[in-house]
From TrEMBL, chain A:
Ion transport found in the keyword field: no
Source taxonomy: Bacteria, Bacillati, Bacillota, Bacilli, Bacillales
The keyword Membrane is assigned to this record: yes
Keywords annotated in UniProt: Membrane, Transmembrane, Transmembrane helix
Name assigned to this protein: ABC-2 type transport system permease protein
Ranges that cross the membrane: 25-47, 67-88, 120-140, 146-177, 189-206, 255-276, 325-347, 359-378, 413-434, 440-460, 481-503, 509-530
Source organism per UniProt: Terribacillus saccharophilus
Automatic annotation (TrEMBL), chain B:
Keyword Kinase: no
PROSITE patterns (alphabetical): ABC_TRANSPORTER_2 (PS50893)
Species per Swiss-Prot/TrEMBL record: Terribacillus saccharophilus
Domain ABC transporter, chain residue ranges per copy: 2-232
Top-level taxonomic group: Bacteria
Protein known as: ABC transporter
Keywords, comma-separated and alphabetical: ATP-binding, Nucleotide-binding, Transport
Length: 544, 240
């Protein structure tokens, strides 16, 4: 039973991680990623511990502090469950390599245990970030003994098992009904959009409930009435069992509860096993087959197009038909303006209007410029200009296409996609800022120039750190130094311009002219860099 | 006509192609043979402009692939050994894309797409994305692409791999007709029976060096053998 699982795990590790750390760009990307995560973790952790501190103070007199742990376990369950749904759908069904395993003489559960390696790494990282700091801090506050910390560690390994196994069972059950090639892409897109909506909702909740004391008070009030722990017990009994294990650590009762939790985890494992054996193949088989429709002859006659036009169409077709590109570059394009509004205005348009009314002249210009750079700057479309071709890049080398044609077509396609977030932002900004015709025109012109500049910056970044040898499109958006380089160049170039505008406090008209000249010069310089990079790169891998 | 003159290609310390000179004449089917890793695909990739030439020259119908790249590329159609390209495009999108690049008129491309895709039994799948095609269907689509383009020089890297017997037969017939019309067909293959049936001339490469170029009769004369091509090939390419 173990042998196939071990072999499958070994091959997964080799396929995904072999040679990864030998590339300096990956190591640098990883270091920056870890620093970023630590920074975020410290911010979030500090925020969480502040809540725990206040809650502990409020609940201690009535002896209800175990509610803190109960709510922690409940929160962990929901977050791990949601994260697992997305990870499992991707790993079990949407990775291209899944078909290479289906013919092997292994049971579905063996394959899926091996396939779980990657999602479980993410799940345990989330658990470590969410659970460990709070439970350890609670232990310090309550003056817990050694057994408490032993149980904290043991529960750390058990916590993700139940939500992960349940999420896997739900996905496997649902996926048996969407076993067609076309539906595969569609469900991937729907799953991704749900993910984006959750991110925005989470931001809205965080923005609306900013005061930790207020949050702590709400939870404490609910706990005083017995509501929260009851809810935890009702929806997810292991949450209250786990909190009892920690609050009465060292007693026989806690050992008994621990055995029960262990049995529940085993039971979840059995559900995983049963779902894998019964449902998995029904959903996984036939995922890469055609639509089954017979071609009717539609579109056979088509007017010839210029090379740039046909290449641009090919680029757009690839982006819209590849779920990962669609999610990251098209659906994601709507997220940035939405986040911008949530972060700065929290949906309170009235106060936003008042705030904007106070801004005039070059300051309004700065706001317009910043909003446009922010909304377009984070869209990764141009950062994958060349890399998204993957092995199809080879075709560019034998087809009679000049580099100029390729670059222009790719820039046009990325420019068009980047118009989406700019349009969304513009449509929202018109009523909020109550722009007059002149201001609206100004906005549009700046948006177009910013778009062009950021698009070329993305292309330069992609050429500096190209990645044609991917096996999964998602690899293009994870741990890539090109993303970081693009953000750094965009931020640096536009921060300089913004600083210049703020310091010189020029009139709107002068600011406008200076900005256009600055961006134009930047575009010319960047296009020159693109041509140099293409000339000096190895033509098959684009690397230098 | 394809002319390869004193071409070298090196990967690090390893010589992939060493001083290869070869002429692929018009009006003939030319087979390019060699064991795995002999330098066949590297040579073909240099001819098609995918790989740069370290030294030497390659011309296609008199146009230099290094200095007159685009004009040289207009002269040939290429079917790669692994047709896993543009997987997110539909079959029809790919054929239109290719037709636009080679400037094929609307009515001409329409007739050719219909004729050749029906000939290779992929017409019904033209509305599907290439990623859903089997290896054989992808191969047929790329062959169809080349036929829609109708260039004077055909370069095919292992074109029979994955083809069903009917498609394989049709491709062989098309190759014969193309050569008979005074054009060039240059292809690599492992299937020696096909080479024996089809080729007017062959070249054999081993470890990056050209061992022989000529007709099959010349080969038998040179090696004083009445054996099959398979036998001669095995003798020539053995590692002794």
């Amino acid at each position: 039973m173990h042998k196939p699982i071990c072999s499958l795990i070994r091959i997964q590790l080799k396929m995904q991680y072999a040679n990864v750390f030998q590339k300096p760009s990956v190591v640098i990307g990883l270091v920056f990623g870890i620093i970023g995560l630590l920074f975020l973790g410290m911010m979030f952790g500090g925020y969480m511990l502040q809540i725990i501190d206040v809650m502990y103070g409020l609940l201690e007199p009535s002896g209800n502090t175990n509610v803190i742990l109960g709510s922690l376990f409940l929160m962990n369950f929901f977050l791990i469950f949601i994260l697992s749904l997305m990870l499992i759908m991707n790993t079990f069904y949407f990775t291209e390599d899944i078909t290479s395993f289906l013919h092997l003489p292994v049971h579905s559960y063996q394959l899926l245990i091996a396939k779980s390696l990657n999602p479980l790494i993410y799940v345990y990282l989330l658990t470590a970030a969410m659970y460990l700091p709070v439970s350890i801090y609670y232990g310090i506050l309550s003056g817990a003994d050694l057994m408490y910390y032993v149980y904290v560690l043991l529960l750390f390994f058990l916590i993700p098992t139940i939500p992960y196994a349940l999420a896997a069972a739900v996905v496997m059950f649902a996926m048996q009904f969407v076993n067609k090639g076309k539906n595969k892409d569609r469900s991937k897109v729907i799953g991704g959009i749900i993910g984006f909506v959750l991110i925005i909702l989470l931001n809205v909740v965080l923005r609306l409930q900013q005061d930790p004391e207020q949050i702590a008070q709400v939870i404490a009030d609910s706990a005083e009435k017995g509501g929260l722990l009851q809810m935890a017990t009702l929806y997810y009994p292991p949450a209250s069992l786990m909190s009892h294990i920690l609050t009465s650590a060292g007693s026989w009762q806690s050992l008994l509860y621990f055995v029960i939790v262990l049995l529940l985890a085993l039971f979840a494992g059995l559900i995983f096993f049963a779902a894998a054996q019964k449902f998995y193949l029904k959903g996984a088989l036939g995922l890469n087959t055609g639509s089954g429709k017979v071609y009717s002859g539609k579109g056979l006659h088509r007017k010839p197009r210029s090379i740039i036009s046909t290449y641009r169409t090919k680029e757009l077709q690839t982006i819209f038909r590849t779920p990962t590109f669609f999610l990251q570059c098209v659906a994601g394009a709507f997220v940035m303006p939405a986040l911008l509004i949530v972060i700065f205005f929290m949906g309170d348009f009235a106060s936003a209007t008042t705030m904007i009314e106070g801004i005039s002249g070059s300051m309004l210009f700065v706001v317009i410029l910043f909003a446009n750079v922010f909304s377009v700057g984070l869209n990764p479309i141009s950062i994958v200009s060349f890399s998204k071709d993957g092995q199809s890049w080879e075709a560019h080398l034998f087809l009679p296409l000049t580099m100029r044609q390729i670059v222009l077509s790719k820039l046009q396609a990325a420019f068009l996609i980047n118009l989406l977030p700019l349009t969304v932002l513009f449509v929202i900004a018109v009523p909020v800022i109550q722009m007059n015709l002149w201001e609206a025109l100004l906005w549009v012109i700046i948006a177009l120039f910013v778009n062009a500049a950021v698009t070329v910056i993305g292309m330069v970044s992609d050429l500096l750190y190209p990645k044609l040898g991917w096996t999964e499109e998602t690899e293009l958006f994870q741990n890539r130094l090109a993303n970081l380089i693009s953000i750094v160049i965009s931020a640096g170039a536009f921060a300089f311009l913004l600083a210049l505008l703020l310091i010189l406090k020029m009139s709107m008209v002068v600011s406008f002219i200076v900005t256009l000249l600055y961006i134009s010069a930047m575009i010319v310089l960047l296009l020159y860099i693109v041509s140099r990079l293409l000339k000096t790169a190895d033509r098959t891998s684009l690397s230098r | 006509m394809i002319q390869i003159v004193h071409v070298h290609k090196q990967y690090g310390n390893k010589k992939a192609v060493s001083d290869v000179s070869l002429t692929v004449p018009t009006g003939k089917i030319f087979g390019f043979l060699g064991p795995n890793g002999a330098g066949k695909s590297t040579t073909i990739k240099m001819v098609t402009g995918i790989l740069p030439v370290d030294s030497g020259t390659i011309t296609v119908n008199g146009k230099d692939i290094t200095s007159d790249t685009i004009a040289a590329k207009q002269e040939f159609g290429y079917v790669p050994d692994s047709p896993d390209l543009f997987l997110r495009l539909k079959g029809l999108d790919y054929l239109h894309f290719l037709s636009d690049i080679y400037g094929i008129a609307a009515d001409v491309r329409e007739a050719r797409i219909e004729e050749y895709s029906k000939m290779f039994s992929i017409y019904e799948a033209l509305g599907d994305q290439i990623k859903t095609y089997s290896h054989g269907m992808r191969q047929k689509l790329f062959i169809t692409g080349m036929l829609v383009q109708q260039p004077s020089v055909w370069i095919l890297d292992e074109p029979m791999t994955g083809l069903d017997p009917k498609s394989s037969y049709q491709l062989k017939e098309l190759m014969r007709n193309h050569a008979a019309n005074g054009h060039t067909v240059f292809f690599s293959s492992h299937v020696l029976e096909v080479v024996e049936q089809l080729c007017d001339e062959v070249a054999i490469i081993r470890k990056g060096e050209l061992l022989f170029q000529g007709t099959l009769t010349e080969m038998r004369e040179k090696f004083q053998s009445d054996d099959s091509l398979e036998h001669i090939f095995l003798e020539l390419t053995q590692d002794a």
